[in-house]
Design goal:
By secondary structure, the chain is mostly helical. The protein has helices at residues 8-21, 26-33, 37-42, 53-71, 76-84, 94-97, 101-117, 120-124, 133-142. Helix 1 (8-21) packs across helix 4 (53-71).
């Protein structure tokens, strides 16, 4: 294992928090990484080798997740609803898009655009507010 700016175990832990916060199972998270559930479970302590496709997908997913937190103003219910629901701009759900690196990048680009234009309010207004304390704790732990 190489010494990197982002230790592989930390990246895997942050990825785990992100997918769990979005209501995904380990099976769904493994589909995002393109590996088996058992391989993801086995990687929990050490993470994936720095520079591997799994490591790069995890980093991209974490970046996307942080944008989603910002755009949804930390509303967990809104994040889950948006991420798992059909989105006209993507012609599918963000979850389905995130099964490829290009898909994660597309979702990230959409969230970046929503953040810059301020159109996020209409997308997330339909969801009831949620408790923010767990999300805030996780944000602190990721930095």
């Amino acid at each position: 294992m190489k010494n990197t700016l982002f230790p592989t175990s930390v990246v895997t832990k942050a990825f785990t928090w992100a997918y769990q916060e979005l209501g995904l199972s380990i099976k769904q998270a493994s589909e995002i990484l393109g590996i088996s559930s058992s391989n993801l479970a086995e990687s929990t302590l050490l993470g994936f080798e720095s520079g591997s496709p799994e490591y790069r997908k995890q980093l991209a997913f974490i970046r996307m997740y942080h944008l989603l937190i910002t755009v949804s103003e930390g509303n967990t219910d809104a994040m889950r609803g948006w991420f798992n629901g059909f989105q006209i701009d993507l012609n599918t759900s963000p979850y389905a898009m995130c099964k490829t690196q290009d898909g994660i990048d597309s979702v990230t680009d959409l969230l970046r655009s929503l953040k810059q234009t301020g159109h996020n309010q209409s997308l997330f207004a339909f969801t009831a507010p949620s408790q923010h304390h767990a999300l805030s704790y996780r944000n602190v732990a990721l930095h």
